[in-house]
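Q: What changes when zinc ion is included in the input?
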Amino acid sequence: MPELPEVETIVRGLAPRLRGRRVTSVWGSGKPLHLRRAVDLRALRAVAVGHPVRDVDRLGKYILLGFGDDEGVIVHLGMTGRLRVSPADEARAPHTHVVLGLAGGDELRFSDPRRFGWVTAGALAANPALAALGPDPLTALDAAALAEALTGVRAPIKAFLLDQRRIAGLGNIYVSEALHRAGIHPTTAAGKLRRRAPALLAAIRAALEGGIARRGTTLRDYVDADGQRGDNAAALLVYGREGEPCARCGTAIRRRVDGGRATFFCPACQRR
Ligand SMILES: [Zn+2]
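A: The predicted holo structure follows.
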């Protein structure tokens, strides 16, 4: 699933292609997306058609196309979603579900084989999914706020970091990487880490910024706005490396699954 660095990479690739370009049409496949919900094409047309894209932004794992003071199109890529600009005369990829026609002959295409992603439009400030998000770790979170949020939380730090209402944008990959960098065991109670909030935040940022610098982590499906795979998989310290020696101490990396989600960690560098 694309996490913050993958979504950021896509946004950086899309922004120069979309900013200032007028949307001329909206097309939908008619297939329902996430939670079997139909795409509201009427709302998409009302927000986008006839208007230029004012801005392309990211909040957590969401892509935001701004069309007015607060109106916008919201895209979540789910597991296998892709958002790309293609020439209108180029054949559409299989599983293309939403297409915004652009003045000048290109199309912004959302494709998603597994259909866990979604596309919606309307007032951004009033959107419940966006309103529920915690602070973005690159732009809005500081160590004092993180320490405050950790206070009294008995849940494991891994669950805390994955909870989008606490911090927006992290998933299995970057949680594993951040906890390894911080030397924290994934099952440590979040509330016990208050004093380590500055180091934890620095580790989260280092993991995310490394991912962005290498244009995202491609394990299977992810590609950027140009259709290119990211280079970050080779730089991962623990994720996907079960049984391999820890780069820091040589101990074999372990994998554990909690609530169906895998975490990779070094049992020597990350003690309970
Ligand atoms: Zn180690």
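Observations recorded in class: The longest strand covers residues 96-102.
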